[in-house]
Amino acid sequence: METELKKKISSLCEGDVKFDVPMRDYTSMKVGGRVECLAFPPSVQHVSALVRFLCDRGIPFVPTGNGTNLIVREGGFRGVLLGLGRLKNISLLPVEEGMGFYAEAGASLREIINLAVERQMTGIEFLAGIPGSVGGAVRMNAGAWGREIKDVLKDVSIANADGEIKCFPAETLPFRYRSLELKPSEVIVGAVFLLAPGEREKIEACIEEIWRKRRMRHPLDYPSAGSIFKNPPGKSAGRLIEETGLKGLEIGGARVSEKHANFIVNTGSASASDVVELINVIKREVKKKHGITLETEVVIIGENGPQEETVELI
Ligand SMILES: Cc1cc2nc3c(=O)[nH]c(=O)nc-3n(C[C@H](O)[C@H](O)[C@H](O)COP(=O)(O)OP(=O)(O)OC[C@H]3O[C@@H](n4cnc5c(N)ncnc54)[C@H](O)[C@@H]3O)c2cc1C
């Protein structure tokens, strides 16, 4: 990246920029090639100025929150990873607008759940244990236990290529199972959550129960990106993988979890290539056994490493 460009991006982020960064330091799976530039704008206004600048210059960029559903291939990503982690403001709604709050994209789900507990608001307990940010969770339409984040959203604020920030009623947005369809140039900067009054003890008990189930079912002792595949209609991806006999299968340091077959865990030394290769093997074997093509839930960006062949299917 040219020096002039680096300087401009840096000034748009008040200096909070890194170059040539290994993504294993910024993703929950702890794998990943290098990104050319990782930029952390300090405010919504800075995000919108940066998005406009990158769009005007035709520089590829990808937003990221907590990196818990993101893998950068071994060959790295040429462009800007736009980190929303500094947008952490959360404010309660005025009483006349209902019970809820506005949270900026970089606030973590843990933070908004803590607020809901404190203020005795019920409705987002199902998000407990999902380690993402508000922006990432809205983009992925994160969900669990039969519920999705879209069900508790009132509005979503989105920065676009023209440097505008527009607020959309959630019901007008194209939410799907584990995704909100956005243009590549669009970045979620915040969302309004509408909840209901609840009792603190009940809310806490519900969250504790969810954590108990997660600890029992999920391999939380290893780095992972959560569920690798979406559930095909009416089926469980984990069950299909298990029935294909793939539990425990390892490529390099990446392993199909013994505890939950839809999780790939990093046993310590996995590379992004190991993970991507394992994903492809799972897809191929499940297709052979069940005739079903699994679709990844985890988002994979970047280029293949020098040793890799063109990656199929993803
Ligand atoms: C142990 C574990 C358990 C998990 N359990 C669940 C679960 O039960 N249910 C579930 O749905 N997910 C689960 N996940 C996956 C993940 O935590 C969620 O998808 C989460 O919402 C992703 O948020 P993030 O901030 O980490 O997003 P990232 O990983 O940073 O990004 C994910 C995607 O969202 C895009 N994105 C991020 N921020 C923005 C933004 N501001 N604007 C536009 N696009 C953006 C990225 O470009 C990328 O495409 C789990 C993950 C782990 C590691």
Global mean pLDDT: 96
SS summary, helix count? 7
Helix content: 25-40%
Order of helices and strands: HEEHEEEEEHEHEEEEEEEEHEHEEEHE
Strand order of the largest sheet: 6-7-15-11-12
Shape: globular
For the record, the count of structural domains works out to 3
Features:
5-stranded antiparallel beta sheet; 4-stranded mixed beta sheet; 314 residues; Uridine Diphospho-n-acetylenolpyruvylglucosamine Reductase, domain 1; globular; Uridine Diphospho-n-acetylenolpyruvylglucosamine Reductase, domain 2; binds flavin-adenine dinucleotide; alpha+beta; Uridine Diphospho-n-acetylenolpyruvylglucosamine Reductase, domain 3; single chain
How is the secondary structure organized here?
Elements: H1 3-12, E1 17-22, E2 34-39, H2 44-57, E3 61-64, E4 70-72, E5 77-83, E6 90-92, E7 100-104, H3 109-118, E8 121-122, H4 134-139, E9 143-144, E10 147-148, E11 153-159, E12 165-169, E13 175-176, E14 179-180, E15 187-194, E16 196-197, H5 200-217, E17 224-227, H6 237-243, E18 250-251, E19 254-256, E20 263-266, H7 272-290, E21 299-301
Parallel strand pairs: 2-5, 3-5, 4-21
Antiparallel strand pairs: 1-2, 6-7, 7-15, 8-16, 9-10, 11-12, 11-15, 13-14, 17-20, 18-19, 19-20
